[in-house]
Amino acid sequence: MMVRIRLSRGGARKRPYYHIVVMDQRDRRDGRSLERIGSYDPALETQDRIKIDIERLDYWVSKGAQISERVKYLKKYSLDPENVKTRQKVKALQLEKAKQKRLSKKQAEAAPVEETVEAAPVEETVEAAPVEETVEAAPVEASEENTEK
């Protein structure tokens, strides 16, 4: 029997919650599991976001269980207590950059309006190129024939 440690989805629609479970790899994603060894709640921003019983995880790995890529990633970040602090700092920096970007957009939109108001009174004089007029002589014979009829 191939045993795998992976995520099993729970929670409501558009509000996911995952259990970290040990199960036969042929079972369905949310099917019967051998053991629940942790949880992952992506909605939380605290240390409670990822909970893994590392002793049980190591036990199952020693028995030959394979760890899914996502669980490896979660294990890596759950072991680092500084990860939550760095993630919060990064998020704060991203919010600050977005705020600065919005402010610069508003200033950029306001600036062209002021420039066009100032530029309107300035007029450039364009000299017209001299045009030579050519006068063609009207056909006299054609006009006389029309009057005789």
Nutshell version of this structure?
Helices cover 44% and strands 21% of the residues. It has helices at residues 54-62, 69-78, 82-119, 140-148, and strands spanning 3-12, 15-24, 35-40, 50-52, 66-67. A hairpin with a 2-residue loop joins strand 1 and strand 2.
Question: What do these coordinates show?
Answer:
By secondary structure, the chain is α+β, with helices and mostly antiparallel strands. The chain has two domains: 3-79, S16 Ribosomal Protein, Chain: A, CATH 3.30.1320; 81-117. It has four helices and five strands, in the order E-E-E-E-H-E-H-H-H. The chain has helices spanning 54-62, 69-78, 82-119, 140-148, and strands at residues 3-12, 15-24, 35-40, 50-52, 66-67. The protein has a five-stranded mixed β-sheet with strand order 4-3-2-1-5. A hairpin with a 2-residue loop joins strand 1 (3-12) and strand 2 (15-24). The mean pLDDT is 78.
Task: Please specify the SSE layout and strand pairing.
Elements (H helix, E strand, L loop, with lengths): L2 E10 L2 E10 L10 E6 L9 E3 L1 H9 L3 E2 L1 H10 L3 H38 L20 H9 L1
Parallel strand pairs: 1-5
Antiparallel strand pairs: 1-2, 2-3, 3-4
Structural class: alpha+beta
The second-level CATH architecture of the largest domain is 2-Layer Sandwich
Strand content: 15-25%
- Physical arrangement of strands within the biggest beta sheet: 4-3-2-1-5
Q: How many domains comprise the coordinates? A: 2
CATH topology descriptor of the largest domain: S16 Ribosomal Protein, Chain: A
Note the quaternary state here.
Answer: single chain
CATH homologous superfamily heading of the largest domain: Ribosomal protein S16
Helical residues, percent: 40-55%
Radius of gyration: 39 Å
Q: Mind summarizing the main beta sheet?
A: 5 strands, mixed
Mean pLDDT: 78
* Low-pLDDT segments, ≥5 res: none
List how many beta strands DSSP finds: 5
Q: What is the helix tally?
A: 4
